[in-house]
Write a structure and sequence with these properties.
It is built from 20 helices and no strands. The protein is mainly α. The chain is flat and about 70 Å long.
Amino acid sequence: MGALLSLPLLAVPSAGGLLTFAASCCGAATCSAVCSACGKCQGSTATRIAYALILLVNSILSWIVLTPWAIKKLEHITLDYIKIECPEGLCFGVLAVHRLNFALGAFHAVLAVILLGVRSSRDGRAAIQNGFWGPKIIGWLGFIVLTFFIPNEFFKVWGTYFALAGAMLFLLLGLLLLVDLAHTWAEYCLEKIEFHDSKAWRGVLIGSTLGMYIGSIAMTVVMYIFFAGSGCSMNQASITINLLVLLGVSIISVHPTIQDYNPQAGLAQSAMVAVYCTYLTMSAVSMEPDDRHCNPLIRARGTRTASVVIGAIVTMLTIAYTTTRAATQGVAMGSKGGNSYSQLGSEDAEHTLVTQQPHSRKDMRADALRAAVESGSLPASALDESDDDDSDDGHRAKDDERASTQYNYSLFHVIFLLATAWVATLLTMNLPSEQVGDFAPVGRTYWASWVKIVSAWVCYAMYAWSLVAPVVLPDRFGH
């Protein structure tokens, strides 16, 4: 997933700059100031961005400590007056990466347990999710400190078995969400076309489908030209299999039997799956080692250090974004997502007599609004607007989770826990030490390439099953 870009070496930040950036992002005062500036400190969006930034900073720090570069830079800054004696595994190296990601994973595990059962921001524990950034950052740093008292043998076992298992779960989750997104996107467009007869949405659906297929074909041609030369059997096989399966699922999606059981299935979903899986395959062949002379991008060294740095940062940005999206995707996760409002009980619906005196005018207004929403006189969002209008403090930021949380808090942190396992595994699995200079290339191993190739195949299989499942199990899908 890393990007290969050619930038001047001046783009590589110094150790001091990176540490300053990390401190700025993670400092309690700065976090509070940023949240206040955004005007929605208690909002769900700002909260998700904050957690994504923490994951991003932790991932970049993990990548930096993979080599002794940071220690050498610190010694150089002090004009070699201070010699930092730090054994590998404690301050840098593979085990140091596992220490950092284990600490962040433990941080999210604790939050997942604390926030079990939170349904709205009215629950006092919701403030732990959306606020208290200073104590939470201190807690995260405390976990990092504690990991240095854990023996190296623990992290050898953790990285070999537990982190690898978590990484695989994270990948499968991402593929599941991609298939779900493909169906959701196509169904949304078809709904706009069917109920509104929108020519614009028809153009969007057709244009996006054609564009994604053209992109898939273009990437396939590029792969055959640059990465499928003589002796590159692995690349030739993976590219060809991807092309054949791409054509196969596209044909299946428009098969008359599939259309009878699922009329909304079609090329729009297939195009999205195809372009993503083709991208995975291209990423795999473009990031594999060049010991067989099958990857010309590595031989074109140029500004290799800047390429590795920018590629690693782009990779970490992608992971942070994907994790945040996965953690808040309600459809595939089984959570309600969005706003969910409780229905009035049957006894309340039978009559409108007031049997108890309201505690305040605020309660009277809330009851009236709930009755209006239940009868259909007002949209459900009126409940949120009422909560915002009735804020005790005029400076209180808008709270979009007063009626219901936008996502499952505990599940959110579980997915972030799995993401830390993926980051640790991606950085450390089968890393050839002889290729590690000041900066370690991210994902440039055969293991990482095969993970992407197999992930593409699994994604195709999930999508194909989503097409044929209504045919094979008609009772399960109401046919």
